[in-house]
Amino acid sequence: MASIVVGAGPSGCIAAKTLVDQDEVFLFEEHKEQPVQCAGLISVSGLKTLGVKPGDSLLNNISGARFVSPSGKSCEVNPGKKMACVVDRRRFDERLLSAAKRKGVNVVNERVVDVAKGKVKTKSGSYPCDKIVLASGVNYSFHRKLGLDHPKNFLVGAQVDLKMDFDPDLVEVHFNVPGFFSWVIPAGDYARVGLCARGNPTPFLNSFLKELESDGRLKKSKPANPVYGIIPVFNPKIRTDYGWVRTVGDAAGQVKATTGGGVVLGGIAASCVGEKNYEAVWRDKIGRELKLHLLIRRLVDKICEKDVDLLVDLIESGSSSLNRGGDMDIASKTVKGLFTNPIFLKDLLLNTPRLILTLL
After folding, report:
1. What is the DSSP string of 114-159?
2. Is the distance from CB of 223 to CB of 161 less than 8 angstroms?
3. What does the pLDDT read at residue 34?
4. N or C: more exposed end of the chain, with fewer CB within 10 A?
5. Measured between alpha carbons, how far is 156 from 160 in angstroms, rounded to an integer?
6. Is 307 helix (H, G, I), strand (E, B) or coil?
7. Strands 170-177 and 41-43
8. DSSP 8-state assignment for residue 173
9. Phi/psi at 129 (nearest 5 deg)?
């Protein structure tokens, strides 16, 4: 018998590589090239945790971020050292897949058409197994067939590549989309410009591009490589372990609600799939962080509904703490740093009446 992983994205590759220490593993991927549905910004600390080096997938190193409100108020968080990597996601995923192959994982380039206890089926045949891991992204057809929990709340992302004026060291975060934000991510000689929305993202993206054009930042080039993707919103109540079948990554909704990123925390969960008590183990490692990201997202949304400038002011007052110990993935570390920063606490106290009004 064997373990079978369905889906060869980052979480699937990490899960397969983990399981091969216990069993023969078959990793199924229907695409010959993984579809790209990600901005490709991954924290340096997260890559170290996963034991992954970007290698030839690296496009740029990022040291900080600039946060911008619709009124034009902005602030900068910049520790002055490499904090994140911008990667070519297709090459990055290929590196993870190659690492799984080197570890002994059997990669099958076929589409799984059916999943049942003890076997999976493809058009060419049936594969017996004693364990199945669904790392099938936002395709929840097998979840529904088997009666498994799955995310039901989503964001939709849209992104294009553009030649434009930008600071190569800084990501830009523009709070100009209800319930999320727009971004400008330097990726070498071009920038990835995109956003997420709770509905159709295209009108918001077109509006943002016009804004950049009116600011004189766009060079004479047309948007290229349009990318659209569905991003699940984390739900702490979703069950991911049914004994013989487990879910991981986007298939389990293990995604940061603050940024929509799932490579690092989904990868950490994937490294736990071989544990006897998978559900308890991954929740112990990252469950609190995912819940905290969700809480932060809800608070930010509340503030942005009424007073985005307040949010930028608070980020600015906490920038020294964020420079010293902010973390893109481990939200508890960031929050702890802010609440031990006297400047931030003073500013928070002074703005308490304003903050209360935005949250009511």
Report:
1. EEETTEEEETTEEEE-SEEEE--TT--HHHHHHT------EEEEEE
2. yes
3. 67
4. C
5. 14
6. coil
7. unpaired
8. E
9. -160, 165
Tokens standing for residue 238: 């979703």
pLDDT value at position 358?
Answer: 75
Chain centroid to Cα 153, Å, comes to 15
- Residue at 16: amino acid letter: A
**pLDDT attached to residue 17:** 97
Residue with tokens 């900080």: 64
pLDDT of residue 220: 81
- Residue 284: exposure state from Cβ atoms within 10 A (0-12, 13-18, ≥19): exposed
DSSP string, 44-106: HHHHHHHT---GGGEEEEE-EEEEE-TTS-EEEE--SS--EEEE-HHHHHHHHHHHHHHHT-E
Angstrom distances, CA of residue 81 to CA of 60, 124, 222, 255, 320: 13, 51, 32, 26, 14
Tens of pLDDT, residue by residue over 280-323, are 999 999 999 999 999 999 999 988 888 899 889 888 888 887 87
Q: Alpha carbon of 39 to those of 77, 190, 246, 308: distances in Å?
A: 20, 13, 27, 24
Residue type, 35: P
User: SS3 for 282?
Assistant: helix
Question: Coil, strand, or helix at residue 197?
Answer: strand
Region of 7 (left: φ > 0; alpha: ψ -120 to 50; beta: rest) is: left
Q: Yes or no: say if 119 and 129 are a contact pair by the CB < 8 Å rule.
A: yes
Q: What is the DSSP string of 216-256?
A: T-B-S---EEEEEEEEEPP-TT---B-SSEEE-GGGGT---
Phi, psi of 254, deg, nearest 5: -85, 70
pTM for the model stands at 0.94
User: CA gyration radius for the chain?
Assistant: 21
Sites in the chain below the pLDDT cut of 70: 34-35, 37, 360
Predicted local distance difference test score (pLDDT) of residue 208: 96
Pairing of strands 25-28, 3-6: parallel
